[in-house]
Design goal:
Elements: E1 7-9, E2 16-18, E3 22-27, E4 33-36, E5 44-49, H1 52-60, H2 63-68, H3 74-87
Antiparallel strand pairs: 1-2, 3-4, 3-5
Helix pairs in contact: 1-3
Length: about 90
């Protein structure tokens, strides 16, 4: 039997993709917003496609804020974009 592939929805564009294709944004217990490169850290997570467009869309449509249940300042989106380009 084929192994089931876990799908996640992008908070930017709304597309469903496999977990491995996406970036995980995490809200830690302390309330910090970080890029979870391992996908295994503890905390509330939201997923984004690996494109700068989706990071911008998530900022505009407040998708990341809804998923993480916290207000996110603009500088965090800037930092996520920077981390995203460094992780490429």
């Amino acid at each position: 039997m084929a192994k089931k592939i876990p799908l996640r929805q992008c908070v930017g564009c709304g597309e469903m993709k496999s977990k491995k294709e996406m970036l995980r944004i995490l809200k830690t217990a302390e309330g910090d917003i970080i890029l979870d490169t391992t996908g295994k850290k503890n905390g509330r997570g939201a997923y984004l496609c690996r494109s700068a467009d989706c990071i911008k869309k998530a900022g505009r449509n407040k998708g990341l804020e809804r998923s993480l249940k916290v207000r996110i300042p603009d500088e965090i989106y800037g930092r996520l974009e920077k981390e995203f380009y460094e992780s490429e």
